[in-house]
Design goal:
By secondary structure, the chain is mainly alpha-helical. The protein is built from ten helices and no strands. Helix 2 runs parallel beside helix 4 and helix 7 runs antiparallel to helix 8. The protein starts with 6 loop residues before the first helix and ends with a helix.
Length: 184
Amino acid sequence: MLQLGHREEAAQRAREVLGIPHADPASPPTLTARITLGVAIAHEEPDEAAEHLHQALALAREDGHLHNEAWCLNCLGVALRRMGRYEEALASHRQAFALLDELFEEHWKIHFLNGYAETCRLAGLPEEALRLHRQALELAPVLGYRNEEALAHEGIATVLDATAPATAAEHRAAGRAVLRELDA
């Protein structure tokens, strides 16, 4: 629901999952619910969002599952970006990528690249944003993540709107073409 832009419904469902007792507090439903809730309410309820995301991160670290830790760090970066806390968001994204590098998990990066790039753009780092979106654009079709490919095109277009409008328009059109293909 969250990825479709339905934040209120995602938050409601996450709260419902958190209301169900689980024997293992680090179980995927609990971890996913905390992450979803944290990202969903980041703009409206930043303190509560940060609390849920930090709890999710602590659970992932206690569990020792580095993939979950990277996922939590990435989502924390997204939420911090939505709160306007760009430096903290960048630090969180960087930690997530450091873990993925440590794990040699290139294929996981596709899930994080566009979000990290958006944080860079909003933090005033357009060249870094372009580099990350281009990396996503390169990986997405190879890995079969066409939505990420469309997001990368749109991200590049957004970065280039002011400085290279013709190139931005080309990327925007390419992203729309990918989405049309997916809808067909």
